[in-house]
Design brief:
The protein is of the alpha+beta class. 29% of the residues lie in helices and 41% in strands. The chain folds into four domains: 42-51 and 296-352, Beta Barrel (conserved putative lor/sdh protein from methanococcus maripaludis s2 fold), CATH 2.40.420; 55-64 and 209-294, Efflux pump adaptor protein, beta barrel domain (Elongation Factor Tu (Ef-tu), domain 3), CATH 2.40.30; 67-97 and 176-208, OB fold (Dihydrolipoamide Acetyltransferase, E2P), CATH 2.40.50; 100-172. A hairpin with a 5-residue loop joins strand 13 and strand 14. Helix 2 packs antiparallel against helix 3 (141-172).
């Protein structure tokens, strides 16, 4: 009997020890689980630093002095003397054409100019004689002024006709289409044997010495931009220059068509590029970042931590490993950082990218 009691007592003791051990283990597991529970978040400490506001868009590289010659009349191209990439001097013949029709038009202008020249010569002679007569008192001031005006009008008409003849010669290619400037042929639209109708582009010529960039901003961004704002230009994630400046801002928003065919109002902005900048290609696209505002050494928070709720600005701070909804007052809002005017102090820890799973008081890790 005594032996049986001892065995029963031992069994009870084992059960108690087992249960106690299980409770201890369960408690340890629960403590461990609690210690390792919570939502994983990215954190960032509030510090002082710079807050920069930028406007970003794509721009097109252009060159100062680039011109495009168009056909003034129908042109049959008989010979092309240059190709794209060639350098031509002012006056060099780029192409020749069958200019029979153009010559007829020019001959008509020359005939008109000849008749006006004869009239102008006669009017100049009368004006000269009128001066002598006026000084001698033979005619009145009014008569003398009328003679001068008639001569002046005919001289202006003759100059206009001569200019038209010269311009028509250059534009139509009579005697060969000559380059009006020195530069590189950046695009040649015409080919031998083709007939080019009036108004169509024939050749593009550019000195390729001074480059600039044009971009079209939406009005909401354009109003932030001022002449002289610093600009960074980037191509393929490589900074080509951070020493560019806003040179010109259009005073009018113009209707443009986007790449997907949607009409938009856009404001043209021109960016000046220093001569020493390399790697620019005429007609190429580059990324443009315009610095529109800068605050130095201010209290700032990651812009990714700030969000709006019912018209007010908030962040989630971290206190005792829990998220705390904190209202803030913000100032300048940059892409990376936002100025904090009220609600935070240096050293406060914020939750970056607070998602829907973050609420006030939630445990985090």
């Amino acid at each position: 009997m005594k032996k049986m009691k001892k065995m029963k007592n031992k069994t009870k003791m084992k059960k108690i020890i087992f249960i106690t051990g299980a409770v201890v283990i369960l408690s340890a597991v629960m403590v461990f689980a609690y210690m390792n529970s919570g939502t994983v978040v990215d954190r960032e400490e509030v510090k002082t630093g710079d807050v920069v506001e930028r406007v970003k868009d794509n721009g097109v590289v252009e060159a100062e002095g680039t011109i495009t010659l168009t056909a003034k009349v129908s042109m049959e191209i008989t010979k092309v003397y240059a190709k794209e990439g060639d350098f031509v001097n002012k006056g060099d013949i780029i192409l020749s054409n069958n200019d029979t029709t153009a010559n007829l038009d020019i001959n008509v202008l020359k005939a008109q100019a000849s008749g006006v020249a004869a009239q102008a010569a006669n009017a100049n002679s009368i004006a000269k004689n009128s001066k002598t007569l006026f000084e001698a008192g033979a005619i009145s001031q009014t008569e003398y002024n009328a003679a001068k005006a008639a001569a002046s009008q005919l001289n202006a008409q003759l100059a206009s006709l001569n200019y038209s003849i010269q311009s028509f010669k250059q534009g139509s290619g009579v005697g060969g289409l000559a380059s009006p400037v020195s530069g590189y042929i950046t695009e040649l639209y015409a080919k031998e044997g083709e007939t080019v109708p009036p108004g169509l582009n024939v050749v593009e010529i550019s000195p390729l010495e001074i480059f600039y960039i044009t971009l079209n901003l939406i009005p909401e961004d354009a109003v932030k931009v001022e002449i002289g704002n610093p600009v960074t230009i980037i191509r393929d994630e490589i900074i080509l220059s951070d020493a560019c400046k806003v040179e010109r801002i259009s005073k009018k928003a113009k209707e443009t068509i986007s790449e997907i065919g949607i009409g938009q109002k856009r404001v043209e902005v021109r960016i000046a590029v220093p001569k020493e900048v390399e790697g620019l290609i005429l007609g190429n696209n580059v990324e443009v970042e315009i610095q529109t505002a800068l605050l130095e050494n201010v209290l700032r928070a990651s812009s990714k931590a700030v969000f709006e709720k019912e018209g007010l600005q908030y962040v989630y701070t971290v206190e005792a490993e829990k998220a705390k909804l904190t209202q803030v007052e913000t100032g300048l809002e940059g892409e990376e950082y936002t100025e904090i005017i009220k609600g935070l102090n240096v050293g406060d820890v914020l939750i970056v990218y607070p998602g829907n799973n973050i609420t006030d008081g939630v445990k985090i890790k």
